[in-house]
Input
Amino acid sequence: MTVLNYEDISPIKKSIEIEIPADRISAESTRVTTEFGRQAKLPGFRPGKIPMNVVRTRFAKEIQEEVMSRLLPVSFQEAIAGKGLEPVGDPHLEHLDPFIEGAPVKYKAQFEVKPHIDLQDYRGIEVDNPKVELADADVDAMIERLREQGSSYRVEIERGLEDGDFAVIDITSSAEGLEPKTENGHFKMGEESPMPELHGALRGRKAGDTAVIEKTYGEDASNEAFRDKTVKHEVLLKEIRVQEKPEINDEFAKSMGGWDAVAQMREAIGKDILRHREAEGTRAKRNQIGEALVKAHSFDVPEALVEEELGKSLQNYARFLASQGVDLEKAEMDWRRIGEDFRPEALKRAQRGLILEAIARKENIAISDVEVDAEIRRAATDQGRDFADVKHRLKHDGGYEELRRSLGQEKALEFVLREAKTR
Output
């Protein structure tokens, strides 16, 4: 392998021209042809007994593609070895000679590398230290949510609808040029709802009563069919349900969390709230550290790393939408625009990651295989998957070393956080 030309296009973009010698191509071609011969199946030949000249002729294109798919990445790594470069993403081929038996192959590629970072002072960064407090009202609010969860509901038939009741309704909507459509639903009287007019129309009415609402919608109506129309809504109050919350006593404490008494429940809830607030405070300080590091350093960021972070953001957003019941295949999502909205934060995360990697190198922060395996085991357990299978997949697709880098960044961030000054 010979490097014919090397060019520094920018601190993060390089160009290289490489020649793979004919003898190396020939040797690899022989190996690949032999492998094809063992595995190939052709009519008239027993498996593994196909003559090599037949294999070369029958699978010429496939053999050439396999040879180059092996030699290109290997020769590229050999060519940049010793240059102190850390490539990111895949090289972009600008030129590749045609495959000719017995001839060398030249190719030219552009590629991105991680930048050299002149580290600024990262010790003693000033961060706000959120005050973590707990009041009785915080515990009361959590217990009230537990009461909501443990509520039962009875049907009310004697009186009319009051604030706090749940109204079960059928609503038939019609307008000029719009076929009548009936939908069912429910809402809580006195609380915010998509159609506030329902509260005034149904307050005081009993189950079985009806009400009519006429409403003119503008161009911003969430229901496209209603836009710029006056719609008649005929509402049937089918049922009134009254929420009955459980009393706060020892029995309630046992049913909701297995606590022996109300006092024990309050103590446990208070500790849990404090843990969450302390964790939120730590996250806030970590975010401040990240912002300070990015602000203190200026350097070019490889586009491949930004795209990688952007891909993670979009995947997380898609998962969130799916968890909210959004059908991603039917939803008309402008992913290009969403990606542009997410790009600035993706760039920041890529910058922060590079800075933390540089800090980890300077501080000799390393992540052992034991630590990587422990993280894989934790994730595999959480997902109900086999540790060996997950580790094998990560080793195969490069995810193992990516996880090591991620853990190294986290360790470096914890180091900077320990060295920070609170104000």
